[in-house]
Amino acid sequence: MGTVAVVFLASEDTVFGRPGSTGSPEVCLPGTPSICGRPSLLQLTPVERLAVFALVAGLFVSLAVLVWRTTAATWLGGDNRTKLLWVVVVGLGGLAGWSFAAVITFAVAFSPVTQLILGYTCGGLPFALVAGMLLRPLRANVVALAVSAGLVAAGFVMVAGEHQVYPQNVFTLYVSYARYFFSNNGSGPMLY
User: Fold this and answer.
1) Which residues pair with 92 in a beta bridge?
2) 127/61 Cα distance (integer angstroms)
3) Are the beta carbons of 119 and 1 closer than 8 angstroms?
4) Would you put residue 79 in left (φ > 0), alpha (ψ -120 to 50) or beta?
């Protein structure tokens, strides 16, 4: 997931130091805060989009290999359909957690270098936490759920500290960025 972050950050020219780029949120319309210029899937070149899809597909293949090799460790390790369900749940849940963390790092204006360090060192954490929620010992489920709740709460507090820029809560910001991420224009207001 760190390499996916590199593709997105390189596409907005912040990794290599675009002149005048501060990495902070811009305002597109007076009084309407936005993260204009932040990565949008449809703003990537076709080659960059293909790279992102290939990396995410490789992630799902890795998850499939993992569950087939560790079947006894999970509640969803029975037949092939439950293993496939495990791959889908862990993959989509991990992507949701990873994108939530990305939105927070954009919202609080982490530098591109910090975002890359977090992407490479902690990019797998959301996937591990979702997989931990599906492990056989119930203690592991509770611990993974508690750590996840703590991280979501930390994100909520971090964005709440930016109340001058983002009057919304972190969940509204997340939904708004998800809409923006899949939009074609990427230049209009993101938050409403």
Assistant:
1) none
2) 13
3) yes
4) beta
> What is the value of pTM for the model shown?
0.80
DSSP lists the bridge partners of residue 27 as 33
Rounded to whole angstroms, the Cα distance separating 128 from 45 reads 30
Within the chain, where are the H helices?
2-11, 46-69, 80-107, 112-122, 125-133, 138-160, 170-181
Residues 100-128: what's their mean pLDDT?
90
Rounded to whole angstroms, the Cα distance separating 44 from 54 reads 14
Higher pLDDT, 43 or 67: 67
Token pair of 96 as six digits: 């949701």
What single DSSP character describes residue 18? -
Token digits for 165?
Answer: 């820029």
> Domain residue spans in the chain?
2-13+38-181
For residues 173 and 159, is the Cβ–Cβ distance under 8 A?
yes
Judge contact between 77 and 67, C-beta under 8 A.
yes
**DSSP summary character for residue 109:** T
Reading the block at residue 161, the tokens are 């500290």
- Dihedral of CA atoms 150, 151, 153, 155 in degrees, nearest 10, equals 170
d(CA 158, CA 108): 7
Query: What DSSP designation does 124 have?
Result: T
Amino acid at 58: G
Model pLDDT, residue 185: 52
